[in-house]
Amino acid sequence: MKHIRIRRIAWSALAAMIIARPALAAYEDVGVGARVSGLGHAYTAVADDVYSMYYNPAGLATLDRPEFGTTYSRLLTGLSDGSNVQNSFLGYAHPIDGGRRGTAGAAWNNFGVGGLYSENQLMFSYGHSLFARTVPDRYYLGGTLKYMNRSIGGTSAAANGISNTGVATGTPDPGLQNTSKMNIDADLGFLWRIRPRWTAGVMIQHLMEPNIGFSESDKLGRNIKLGGAYKTPFSTLTGDVRFQSAPDGSTDKILAVAAEKWLPTLLHGMFGVRGSLSMGSRDFRQVAIGLSYKINRMQFDYGFALPIGGLNSTSGSHRLGLTMRFGRPKQAEAAFGEAILENLRDLAAVGTPEFRYQMEDLALYKRTAIDEFLRQAKLDASAGRFSDAADKLTQAISLKPKDPRLQQSLERMVAVADIYPAVKDYQTDAAQAAVYEGALDFISGNGKESLRKLAYAGTLNPTDERIERLAKAVEAKSGLTREGPPPEDSGKAPTMGAEKVVGGTMALMEVALRERDFERVVKLADQVLQIDPSNALAYKRLGAAHYALHHNSEALKALRSAYKLETDSDSRKQIKSYIDALQSLIERGRRDSAPAKTAEPVKSSGLSPVDIERLYEQGVDLYAQGKLTESAAAFRRILESEPNNTSARRALDRVQSEIITGGQKK
Questions:
Q1: What is the pLDDT of residues 15-33, one digit of tens each?
Q2: CATH number of the domain that 14 lies in?
Q3: 610 Cα distance to chain centroid
Q4: Would you place residue 205 in the very low, low, confident or very high pLDDT band (cuts 50, 70, 90)?
Q5: Confidence of residue 2 (pLDDT cuts 50, 70, 90)
Q6: Residues in CB range of 308: below 8 A, 6 or more apart
Q7: Which of 230, 242, 483, 630 is 20 to 30 Å from the Cα of 365, by its Cα?
Q8: Eight-class DSSP state of 168
Q9: How many domains does the chain have?
Q10: 452 located within any domain
């Protein structure tokens, strides 16, 4: 019996080396994921990414695109014995048939203490919604099958056995040679979306309670987790109660509460902050914080946890994680209602530097110097400072010298700046406004529209020879030729005075559109139509301005007039589609405002917080691709469901500004 007692002493010594906190059991639930670490592992009711395989596999059913996640952790750093406690995780989840047939996932999880002790788990998970045909997207069930292996590395106790007399034998101890153990285990999870913002979850860990002992029986007890979460589009409050099997056979009870906040931006990705507090049995207390940065389909996470009770001789645990998502999230709805109405902004577009490549680059290189130069160039050009804009483009092209589109924009900008270094009075002077608009059209590559507006400028200010020089430069660069003036009919009264008024007013109206002064656009369009009632373009601008002011009936009337006067067949088809969509919107508004016929409550058609987040991400993706009208439709759909969503409101304002000032059009 003595040699058994000595062997147990050796085992105890080994345990002292590999145990990071008192009475730590094998396959201890140390957690995975840097984001989840910042939440204090209160993730049972959140479970909205690839890490659901570990925390609640039912959450896999909520994924609608493939995800890959990896995390590296240094646990309980600063221990006096210098222990190197690490954890690594790799996981991939893939929705089947877009998630309609559930989501499958696979993961590898490793826990180790230097070369002394190692635990490896291979996980195969699957999650699916329940009763989807009758109660869609409310109940989810998932499971994880695990292949587990733990082993002890080379130690002096294992390599040098001890005899019954307590003398080292110099030969391996037979009792310490069987140092590897394989087991099969399973987890089961359930997720319930009680209401759009409320979820509850249950997780049963180690469902099979396998015997993980090397030589003696050592049953792995079950852990049960209960969680609840309240989730708005960009924030989460969550809590977990965990009942964990302790090494002595008792049950540890742990309560964790956490909060998370995402700070979205349209151009620079999303920033996340989170924090948590946990407390429980055996004087367990812990605080944790976390940070995240999400851009495009990549997310970087950091989590830090610090024990403040029980084990306190440590400088805490650190985790770094990376999550990648592939493909686009599915639309929150099959189609956006009246999305085509956003194209009315295209009717109001007036031409500006169209740096289409800029938006593409912004999605990839938002922190580089070239983005800043391009942004400043656009601001300078929009303010009429063409010489300053040319300087910014020169600096940008020095960083990207082989970009042909950038080179073309620079050549056009320089051609304008050589003649008009700056145009100052374009907001009040009609001739300057026409020059300003013509210059911006030329820079954006619309030579035909540029020559038309410069012709306005020439009639308004025939003494300015720079207008003619700029028109010739536009002809040379664009390969276009100006149309000659209409032959004079001596039998009719001269109309040049009226043409000047119309041309000047139209030029000022274009500037008002760029500055989103829609009230002024309405007044200027009315002035034009009093002189020239057959001006189809003025009716288009009037319709766009009324729509922006939410005067739908007036917008519909103006568009119908534009449709009657428009002679181009393609333009007529486009205007007709706007009219149809606007009629549908007006009719829907009438139905919504009509009194209910019965006293039955009307079910909410609002989007869930998850849908709003996905719709926001979709809007950002569409914006980065230059699809401004589709992007605006996504943000508008969010605001229809949640009018007080300030992030979506700011994003929509930015996109609409891009559209109205002549941004990318798809």
A1: 444 433 334 567 888 899 9
A2: 2.40.160.60
A3: 12
A4: very high
A5: very low
A6: 285, 286, 287
A7: 630
A8: B
A9: 1
A10: no
